[in-house]
Amino acid sequence: MTEQNDPPPTARRRFFGALGLAAVAAPAAAFEVDGGTGGLPPARESEAEKRKARYRETDHVRAYYRTNRY
Amino acid sequence: MARMKFLCDSDRCIECNACVTACKNEHEVPWGINRRRVVTIGDGKPGERSISMACMHCTDAPCAAVCPVACFYGTEDGLVLHDKDLCIGCGYCFYACPFGAPQYPRVGNFGGRGKMDKCTYCAGGPQQDNSAVEYMQYGSNRIAEGKLPLCAEMCSTKALLAGDGEIIASIYKERVQQRGYGSGAWGWRTAYKEELPA
């Protein structure tokens, strides 16, 4: 039996309502259809840029070669 | 100039499929597409061999030769990349490729194949390096970060080699000189009754 001095349950409902809204809105805000370009066309590499050599022999790559000799 | 290549040491590959999993996870490859897969010959029989296969980035790529919209392009270090904005999903490259590398998401209506997807050697595509758009279309660009393809870096037995063709060939040569022709794997004489030549 409910006592007269209990707070009305509307506060709790508002809390869960807000929680539900956040659960829907947060992923929608994080998901960007244009890939994060702000609506602008994505920057593309020029013909020369896209054909240039991409490989660099960094320390990371040298470590890979070294460990593969074991 | 370095020439990028893949080399799979079939004596070391244990068919664990870590390369396949690493590739799918790194690039968030959609369901139904495998840019890399492990092929086993003589599965379950003595002397079985497994090799990890993906786009081999051919010197004279047949996929590029048959593409009606010329969406393929080669880089100076020997990679064969493609532009998904140009691809019309005709499927010619799939028929031309001797390795079965081109894959299609088949998400369109009326049996459309969708944009072709294949191994990029972790080098992205024609979009700006390491941009969100490039990641969405082609996956991560590890080469631009000064790394090598994750499939090869993740290989637990170091069977899958990637990098400068001359260097990985020398690594493989050292292995063959050390273990002799055939497998030097522990247990082969016991399990398969195979003698290792000196």
UniProtKB/TrEMBL annotation, chain A:
Organism: Belnapia rosea
InterPro entries from the UniProt entry: Formate_DH_TAT-contain, TAT_signal
Region called Disordered, residue ranges: 34-55
Compositional bias segments (type: Basic and acidic residues): 44-55
Name of the molecule in the record: Formate dehydrogenase region TAT target
Automatic annotation (TrEMBL), chain B:
MF GO annotations: 4 iron, 4 sulfur cluster binding; metal ion binding
Domain named 4Fe-4S ferredoxin-type: residues: 4-34, 78-107
SUPFAM superfamilies per UniProt: 4Fe-4S ferredoxins (SSF54862)
Keywords tagged on the record: 4Fe-4S, Iron, Iron-sulfur, Metal-binding
Pfam family, one: Fer4_11
Source taxon at top rank: Bacteria
Protein name: Formate dehydrogenase beta subunit
Organism: Belnapia rosea
Classification lineage: Bacteria, Pseudomonadati, Pseudomonadota, Alphaproteobacteria, Acetobacterales
